[in-house]
Amino acid sequence: MNDQFTTLLSEMTFIERQYEFRNPDVVLYHPGHYTELNEQIITLFHEEGFKTIMIPSVPNAFLNANEFIFHKEILVKSGIPQELVIPITGEANTANDVIKNAMLLLSKTTENKNILLAGKTFFMKRFLLIATAFATNNMTIDILPLQDNRNLTKDTWHLTDIGRRRVWNEYHMISKFLKENCP
Predict the structure, then answer these.
(1) What residues does 54 pair with on adjacent strands?
(2) Tens digit of pLDDT for each residue in 101-124?
(3) What's the predicted TM-score (pTM) here?
(4) Which end of the chain is less congested by CB atoms within 10 angstroms, N or C?
(5) Domain 17-151 is of which CATH architecture?
(6) What residues contact 7, with CB distance under 8 A and at least 6 apart?
C-alpha cells in the first residue's frame, strides 16, 4: 500500500470527537470484549457526566458472558450509578443491528437528544453513519473514539495484519448496511 492510499483510507475510516455538547443525554457504548475501554467511559462520566449509558445485551463468546451484564458490573463498581446503565435489546446478529435497535428506541423518546457514540477508533465512522440513518432531526450525535490495547489509530492501523483486517471489515459492514437498509 502506498502512502496516498493509506492516508485516504485513514481519512475515510477514522474520525475525532467534535465536542457538539458536553454531558450527553445518552452514551451508546459498544465495548465488545475490550475491558480496557471501560476506563475511558469511567473518565468520561467523572469529567463530563451523562444521564444514561446503553450497552448491547448480547452474548459475547470472548467474554463467555452477556456484554451488558459483564460491562455494567465494572462500570457500577467504578462509581457509575447502576440505574444509569441500561441494555440495548432486540434481535441483533451484528453491531449494525445493535445500533439500529438503540436508535429506533431513542427516536421514540423526547428527552434523549444529545447522543454520544462510544466505541473502538476504527468503528466510529460506521457507528455514526448507522446512528444518523435512524436518528430524528432533533437529535445531535457526536462520537467518542476509544483506544483499545491494539493501538489501531489513524496513523498505525496499516502497519499490522489485524489493523488492515479491521479497516477492510469496516467497508464490508458499511456495504452490508447499505444493501440491507438503503434499497
Answers:
(1) 28, 86
(2) 999 999 988 787 999 999 999 999
(3) 0.94
(4) C
(5) 3-Layer(aba) Sandwich (3.40)
(6) none
- Per-position DSSP letters for 8-53, written without gaps between them: HHHHHH--------SS-SEEEEE-TT-TTHHHHHHHHHHHT--SEE
Handedness of CA 42, 86, 96, 28 (dihedral sign): negative
| CA separation for the pair 117, 135 (Å, rounded) | 12
Higher pLDDT, 33 or 167: 167
Report residue 103 as a C-alpha cell: 436508535
How many CA atoms within 13 Å lie on the side-chain side of 161?
0
pLDDT, tens digit, 9 for 90 and up, residues 133-170: 999 999 999 999 999 999 899 999 999 999 999 999 99
Amino acid at 92: A
Q: What is the DSSP letter of 155?
A: T
CB 86 within 8 A of CB 52: yes
